[in-house]
């Protein structure tokens, strides 16, 4: 197990290195400089001075090397736009709302989706099943920002049930969470229904019935765990799509999260913030994939990393 | 000896898009304490469905038991609801499935799978159930039971898994054990071991066994009595000797004739011509008539009743009617019968 983890850790570092490199050079290809969109408030000489100060006049490979050595020392640079604030501070300040929103949407969405899928499978070929199928197809095919707009218009503006935007109290989190959780819910429901039907038709479920196990126990003790295996597989990519989903949703609901800051940093060529956010997302991504792989082993003994084979 | 199970006029139907399939059409048999009854017949003859009906495992709402009774322990199992059946399944009647590779839950330790029934039916504590599970693993011949208890099915070979399935079925000392082709999915050497194990267990536990198979060699080896099923009905029933040495139904002749023996000298195996009838609209008269070269005119008109051959032996064919012409089984079948006698002699 320890050997496996170390191996995975090395792969993670390689992945991160590739992501950092690619993002850095892509970012440099983007037109403009952090200081040329200040609307002519500074002269060209001032701009050259600023660029020299931040090392932007060096050749790109040199900048890249400097940035990498900085990261290794834990220095992610300072923002060009916000009064020289360290990027680390800015991210730490902003990560709270994003993490809260993402986690709420993922957990509630996945749990609801799994329940919906199970019910659909148990009542398959009834109106309950058809309804849940339609809900799932809608949830998969319509992007989250459309739901966001609809939710804001009906629930907030028209019926005044929830605040339209901002992130101040738990009630403020309701609408963005709903908008963001529809996709994972729909995906989980679809997968769960298919898997559950397959599992319920399997021989080992029949054997459990033949043992006299009640229907409830069959569902939760025998079927659920087996049906969850493929659902766990989609949880990884789903978490990633949630991360990108938050970028848009945070903009729409004015959530002071990382996504909002990320978008504005791209617009203003705030290189250190772009890099810092990308690295943060990348780290989250590889960690989530590792967690999913470990969860997989926890649920399915056949692919457990340790433990002997056939004997 | 007393009957432990009486099945009277059992019918099972399934609603499908094509129509109502009459999978079992009036089956009668009884099972005595401690005996092994083999049910043989080709695929789709209703063997498995009959036993699923005994277990209450007919899938509703498509599957129904419109008629008939299954008398067990003073109760009619056909009338019990799901909750009542749950108390009987696995406790009084249990089942061994066909394919051990798929019939164990892949994500549950085998110890837990064995203990589940014990905790459920006998209200045993975890400790007691574990002790019994160890005993069972030992009984079915699995070495290292302590270690094996904590392993998952994928860590077992096919033959070992079938032993686990048998241990699960035996956990609560069932009165009736149904084995649905328990050796079909195993390779031949393992088949022999599992058959020996089942015989051994029966002699130790005095369980009644219903053994479904289409391997007539196995029947001769394990069974006391044989029921031959065709198109949802029992067409011939009797002791192994009755059915193998004095078969009366032309379908039984066909089955015996199509069985390969060690010293077959013929180039070809005999096959029963044609295919089984469509059970959505079963033919009038004897369902086997269309494939039967000895069919009489009445076979196409009226269903034959069960004729008594001896106290233990019954067959449903008009050939046994007093007005029917005297017909001997074909010579090839007679030869096979002699062949089986030889094989059986060498086995015991």
Automatic annotation (TrEMBL), chain A:
It is a multi-pass membrane protein. Keywords: Cell membrane, Membrane, Transmembrane, Transmembrane helix, Transport. GO terms for biological process: transmembrane transport. PROSITE patterns: ABC_TM1 (PS50928). The chain crosses the membrane at residues 9-30, 101-122, 134-154, 174-192, 227-253, 273-296. Its main location: membrane. Pfam families: BPD_transp_1 (PF00528), BPD_transp_1_N (PF19300). Residues 95-296 form the ABC transmembrane type-1 domain. PANTHER family: DIPEPTIDE TRANSPORT SYSTEM PERMEASE PROTEIN DPPB-RELATED (PTHR43163:SF6). Belongs to the binding-protein-dependent transport system permease family. This is Oligopeptide transport system permease protein. It comes from Gracilibacillus ureilyticus.
From TrEMBL, chain B:
PANTHER family: DIPEPTIDE TRANSPORT ATP-BINDING PROTEIN DPPD, OLIGOPEPTIDE TRANSPORT ATP-BINDING PROTEIN APPD. Its main location: membrane. GO terms for biological process: peptide transport. Belongs to the ABC transporter superfamily. SUPFAM superfamilies: P-loop containing nucleoside triphosphate hydrolases. Transmembrane segments: none annotated. It is found in: Cell membrane. This is Oligopeptide transport system ATP-binding protein. Pfam families: ABC_tran, oligo_HPY. GO terms for cellular component: plasma membrane. It comes from the Bacteria. Keywords: ATP-binding, Cell membrane, Membrane, Nucleotide-binding, Transport. The lineage of its organism: Bacteria, Bacillati, Bacillota, Bacilli, Bacillales. It is a peripheral membrane protein. Residues 5-256 form the ABC transporter domain. One of its GO terms (molecular function) is ATP hydrolysis activity. The keyword Transcription regulation does not apply.
């Amino acid at each position: 197990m320890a050997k496996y983890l170390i191996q995975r850790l090395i792969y993670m570092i390689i992945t991160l290195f590739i992501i950092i490199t690619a993002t850095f050079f892509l970012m440099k290809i983007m037109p403009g400089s952090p200081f040329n969109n200040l609307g002519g408030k500074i002269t060209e000489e001032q701009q050259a001075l600023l660029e020299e100060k931040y090392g932007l006049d060096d050749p790109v490979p040199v900048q890249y090397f400097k940035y990498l050595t900085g990261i290794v020392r834990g220095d992610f640079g300072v923002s060009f736009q916000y009064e020289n604030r360290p990027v680390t501070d800015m991210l730490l300040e902003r990560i709270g709302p994003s993490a809260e929103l993402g986690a709420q949407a993922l957990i509630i969405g996945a749990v609801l989706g799994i329940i919906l899928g199970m019910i659909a499978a148990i009542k398959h070929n009834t109106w309950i099943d058809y309804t849940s199928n339609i809900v799932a197809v809608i949830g998969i095919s319509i992007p989250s920002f459309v739901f966001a707009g609809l939710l804001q218009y009906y629930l907030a503006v028209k019926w005044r049930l929830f605040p339209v935007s901002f992130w101040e109290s738990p009630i403020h989190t309701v609408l963005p969470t709903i908008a963001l959780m529809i996709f994972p819910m729909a995906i989980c429901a679809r997968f769960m229904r298919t898997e559950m039907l397959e599992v319920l038709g399997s021989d080992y479920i029949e054997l459990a019935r033949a043992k006299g196990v009640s229907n409830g126990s069959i569902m939760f003790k025998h079927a659920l765990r087996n049906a969850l295996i493929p659902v766990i597989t989609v949880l990884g990519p789903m978490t990633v799509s949630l991360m990108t989903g938050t970028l848009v949703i945070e903009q729409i609901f004015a959530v002071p999260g990382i996504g909002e800051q990320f978008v504005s940093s791209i617009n203003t060529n705030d290189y250190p913030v772009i890099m810092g956010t990308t690295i943060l997302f990348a780290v989250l991504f590889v960690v989530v994939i590792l967690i999913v792989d470990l969860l997989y082993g926890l649920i399915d003994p056949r692919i457990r990393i340790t433990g002997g084979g056939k004997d | 000896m007393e009957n432990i199970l009486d099945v009277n006029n059992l019918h099972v139907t399934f609603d499908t898009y094509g129509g109502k399939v009459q999978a079992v059409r009036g089956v009668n048999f009884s099972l005595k304490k401690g005996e092994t009854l083999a049910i043989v017949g080709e695929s789709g003859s209703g063997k498995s469905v009959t036993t699923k009906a005994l277990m209450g495992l007919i899938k509703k709402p498509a599957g129904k038991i419109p008629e008939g009774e299954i008398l067990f322990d003073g109760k009619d199992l056909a009338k019990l609801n799901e909750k009542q059946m749950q108390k009987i399944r696995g406790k009084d009647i249990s089942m061994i499935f066909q394919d051990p590779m798929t019939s164990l839950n892949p994500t549950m330790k085998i110890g837990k799978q064995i203990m589940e029934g014990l905790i459920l039916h006998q209200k045993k504590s975890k400790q007691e159930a574990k002790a019994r599970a160890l005993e069972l693993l030992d009984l079915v011949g699995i070495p290292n039971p302590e270690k094996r208890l904590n392993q998952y099915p994928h860590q077992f070979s096919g033959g070992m898994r079938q032993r686990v399935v048998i241990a699960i079925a035996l956990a609560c000392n069932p009165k009736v054990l149904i084995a649905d082709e328990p050796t079909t999915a195993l390779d031949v050497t393992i088949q022999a071991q599992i058959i020996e194990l089942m015989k051994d267990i029966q002699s130790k536990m005095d369980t009644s066994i219903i053994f479904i198979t289409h391997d007539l060699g196995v029947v001769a080896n394990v069974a006391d009595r044989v029921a031959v099923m065709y198109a949802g009905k029992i067409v011939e029933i009797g002791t192994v000797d009755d059915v193998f040495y004095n078969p009366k139904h032309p379908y039984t002749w066909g089955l015996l004739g199509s069985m390969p023996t060690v010293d077959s000298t013929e180039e070809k195996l005999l096959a029963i011509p044609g295919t089984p009838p469509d059970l959505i609209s079963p033919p009038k008269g004897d369902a086997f008539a269309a494939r039967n070269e000895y069919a009489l005119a009445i076979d196409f008109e009226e269903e034959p009743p069960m004729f008594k051959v001896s106290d233990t032996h019954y067959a449903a064919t008009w050939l046994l009617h007093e007005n029917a012409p005297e017909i001997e089984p074909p010579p090839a079948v007679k030869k096979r019968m002699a062949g089986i006698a030889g094989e059986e002699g060498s086995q015991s």
